Amino acid sequence: MNEFLDAASLILILIGAILCLTAAIGLLRFRDVPTRLHAATKPQVLGFVLICLAIALSLRSWPVVAFLIPVVLIQLATAPLAAYMVSRQAYRNGTIDENALLVDELSESSETPPAAGG
């Protein structure tokens, strides 16, 4: 059973490392902010979760699992939030090509409200 768990953890680390590598390559290769944010959040978070799962399988210790669960939950909570904040700021700065957007939900929020006096 130990050999099976060690092999499973090795495979999970390999897949997680490949996902993190593709995220890094995507950050370098993609040109605009939305695609870079997609590359920075989606495969990186999944790779991180797989590596943490592999660590838990490899060490086979409940204190390690108890430590890794909040780490993974914090990563799952903060990565999409950080990507959202970066994309919103890029939209406000004008670094996003608005013609490439299929749906522009922020167009109304950038207009000055009538009661604002401007």
UniProtKB/TrEMBL annotation:
<dbReference type="Pfam" id="PF03334">
    <property type="entry name" value="PhaG_MnhG_YufB"/>
</dbReference>
<feature type="transmembrane region" description="Helical">
    <location>
        <begin position="40"/>
        <end position="59"/>
    </location>
</feature>
<keyword id="KW-1133">Transmembrane helix</keyword>
<dbReference type="GO" id="GO:0015385">
    <property type="term" value="F:sodium:proton antiporter activity"/>
</dbReference>
<feature type="transmembrane region" description="Helical">
    <location>
        <begin position="65"/>
        <end position="86"/>
    </location>
</feature>
<keyword id="KW-0812">Transmembrane</keyword>
<dbReference type="InterPro" id="IPR005133">
    <property type="entry name" value="PhaG_MnhG_YufB"/>
</dbReference>
<protein>
    <submittedName>
        <fullName>Monovalent cation/H(+) antiporter subunit G</fullName>
    </submittedName>
</protein>
<feature type="transmembrane region" description="Helical">
    <location>
        <begin position="6"/>
        <end position="28"/>
    </location>
</feature>
<keyword id="KW-0472">Membrane</keyword>
<comment type="similarity">
    <text>Belongs to the CPA3 antiporters (TC 2.A.63) subunit G family.</text>
</comment>
